[in-house]
Amino acid sequence: MKYRMFPAWLTLLSGLFCQMVLADDSALYDPKTKESDLPDKYSYKGQGQPAFIQTLVPSKAQIDINQKYFEICEAELGAFPKETIDCRNAQPILMQRTTSDGKVTRLTLDNIPDSIPRVRDGENQVTFGPDNLASSITTCDKPSGIFRDMKNVGCVPGDRIGHVRNELSNGDQVDWVYICRKNSKFMADEFLYNELGLIGYNRNTGKTCYFAGQATLRFSVETEEEDNKDKSKKKTDIDIIVGKDIPPPKGRDFDKRAVSHWSMPPGGCTSCHSQGPFVRYPFTEQVCLADEDTEKCSLKPEHSFATVRECNHFLYKNRQALPGDYKCKKVMPERQPGMLYSVISPFTDSRLQEHIKDLSSKYKTSQDEYLGEFVGATLEKWHEPKRLAEKQAEPCTLCHAIGDGRYGERFMQSAFRLGQTVPQADYHFRSRLYWSNLSEKSKEAGFHDEKIKTAVLPAKNQGKDSKEIKNAVLEDLSEKAYLLAIQRVKECSTSKDKEPKERCKWEDHWTLEKIKEEPLNYLKANCSYCHDGNTEWRKLMTEADYKENAAIVMRRIQEDNPAIIMPPSGSLPPSAINIIKAYLQGK
């Protein structure tokens, strides 16, 4: 079967999964739309005015494909454990600005400028100066990685993030994380959003499903695009999601109405999520005030914080006034050393491939060419996520899985400064916007710079004795090692220069099958950096080292050993620990 690999495939997927409105009323696309009244509390505050509003309806083929996807995901992850998905029950993501004098301002929809819709890629709507920074855009401490509003860019307040953990009947722990993004202030209603996403992750097996939130309303806006030469009228569509009472993507109790809200992604997830299921981006590192007993987060905006330090400071000052016992809790699930990761997609799962191929006979339409290309394209692999396995990068990869694709490019640009206060000219467009968005205070130190100096290095540099000169040497060597590691990650992740990336060592993510085949490599990847003989901890580098010290190794990785606080104590997946135990005991 012949098919054009990219443009037509992308066009098809946009039509199939994003409900592109086509002129041909085919059974495949079934572009049913109808004029709709505006939602309650509707208020538009952006440039240009809406021309028309539509209610978007999924096609028959889209319902068919997604029902199968939902069934397969539910078999691996269990059903979403709540009746509905509701942004009202998710934690508000704090958006604030810290100036160089330390003054903190919380951003609201009332104290940021009017929004300007992004037209096409948006590059012509922003002017960068000689320092490669864009002036005249809103600044904040932790910009979002998603840019739809070309005035406030990544600093629009109103986003929410939710985390639900579920235990299956077989004991598997499943994390569900959903995010509701308000990428502009076009909609003043607090429950109207521009984007919605859901991730399901089985911690025991690594199986992962991504669900792309689907807009239920769309309106077209005519706006002016300024591109340094002239101003011209452009039309752009703004998709709207009503973020409450959303039916979850269930398989066994399938409700076709859920396909109006959720879709199997067309293939873009694992380029950004190449490191694992949850991107530990500074923007999403939200902290809440949680009930000590139930661990349920308070949803009050004043109980949402950007860091654990800020939350602890609030708790210290207000503990007596709070109606109960509370603690500070990170909303996003913590990453495990040795995490497993295996994505379910139409490009890797044979069950989905066979089902989608059957569409060619089930849906005979005038779009046969596009349908044929789509069926053929499913036989090509989705972006297969890899993790960086470079020796020099171990100071970073001990705690972080550094993925390839877009994730690797942006990780260093958002996390570290290393003496840089401006982005390089060849940085990705979004990364340059990210730097431009950053508050003055945030530009002075990276998200991880302080953490490394105050937490990681002291733990690493305890030394084998208490002599000051010995610790000073270790500290110097260790700091240099981090700088070299960060530089190596940048070299390996660049998309501009292919040679360094091709020289780097990229490996598949850990799965239960891979651990069974390479138990020693799994142990070394999670233990040997700290146990390398240069610290007070026992050297564990070879098979003999691990097997001779099997009792110590198992004591450190057992889940019920809270006394050992350094990774990977008590944090390796139980399914992986069973394999490692059998390996160490020679079974």
Question: What does this protein look like?
Answer:
- It is a single chain.
- This protein is an alpha+beta fold and 587 residues long.
- It folds into three domains: 35-57 and 83-248 and 263-286 and 332-342, no CATH class; 392-507, no CATH class; 510-587, no CATH class.
- 30% of the residues lie in helices and 17% in strands.
- It has helices spanning 7-17, 60-77, 269-272, 308-318, 350-357, 359-362, 368-377, 394-397, 405-415, 429-437, 440-444, 449-460, 468-493, 498-503, 512-517, 519-527, 543-548, 550-557, 574-584; strands at 33-35, 49-56, 91-92, 96-98, 104-106, 160-167, 173-181, 192-193, 195-202, 207-213, 217-226, 231-242, 262-263, 287-291, 304-305, 326-330, 342-343, 386-388, 506-508.
- Strands 3, 6, 7, 9, 10, 13 and 17 form a seven-stranded mixed beta sheet that branches. It has a five-stranded antiparallel beta sheet with strand order 1-2-11-12-8, with no helix packed on it.
- Helix 1 (7-17) crosses helix 7 (368-377), helix 2 (60-77) runs antiparallel to helix 5 and helix 9 packs across helix 13.
- The protein starts with 6 loop residues before the first helix and ends with a helix.
- Residues 1-36 and 365-370 have low confidence and may be disordered.
